[in-house]
Design brief:
434 Repressor (Amino-terminal Domain); single chain; Rossmann fold; 201 residues; 2 domains; alpha/beta; 54% helix; five-stranded parallel β-sheet
Length: 201
């Protein structure tokens, strides 16, 4: 399971109902959102605490999204800004990208489309990670799959790695985290690089 609760998302839209809907959606997906109908208040909040992602409406009465992107990037250039608009056009998309936004979403948007955009931004920043229990399970599953594909028993793998069958069984079941040393021995015994066991996890 991907861990997202540490990712703070700044949601800025002058429509309170959109703020509420998006805020609840992001909470439901594990994110930590703060919603603002006032871009000025949102910018002030960004000066006081660190946000990794900003979701910004393009057209707002007091300040447009292009300007908001510029101000947020001036506060923290690492922040990923995603612009939402009910009036998509090439000029506004180009201008928001020039100011530093990383994505541009047309309203009305599908919930999965919005979350996928935020997930992509987080992955580019390297701030979503896999829960430790799930990571152990996935590594164990991958080791077992490679072992079985080579028709090796736990005893045979044990002989090749100097790990006991009990240790190997615990690793394969995801009940114990394998040390880097153990992963190196296991991957070598299976004719793999350690990176192949961890790739994509």
């Amino acid at each position: 399971m991907a861990v997202r609760h540490h990712v703070k998302v700044l949601v800025i839209d002058d429509d309170p109902s959109i703020c509420k809907t998006v805020g609840l959606l992001l909470e439901d997906r594990g994110y930590n959102p703060r919603t603002y109908t006032s871009p000025e208040e949102a910018i002030e909040a960004a000066r006081e605490e660190s946000f990794q992602i900003a979701l910004i409406d393009l057209r707002m009465p007091s300040m447009d999204g292009v300007e908001v992107v510029g101000k947020l990037k001036a506060i923290d250039e690492r922040m990923s800004c995603i612009v939402m608009t009910a009036y998509p056009d090439l000029d506004s998309a180009t201008e928001t990208m020039r100011q530093g936004s990383c994505d541009y979403i047309a309203k009305p948007f599908k919930q999965d489309e919005l979350v996928a955009s935020i997930d992509r931004a987080c992955q580019r920043m390297g701030i979503i990670y896999t829960d430790e229990t799930e990571l152990n399970r996935l590594i164990g599953q991958r080791i077992r799959s490679h072992r079985l594909s080579q028709n090796l028993t736990l005893r045979q793998l044990s002989d090749r790695t100097d790990l006991t069958t009990s240790q190997l069984s615990q690793v394969e079941l995801g009940k114990n985290a394998a040390s880097i040393w153990a992963l190196a021995r296991i991957s070598n015994a299976l004719g793999l690089q350690v990176s192949e066991l961890l790739d994509g996890l």
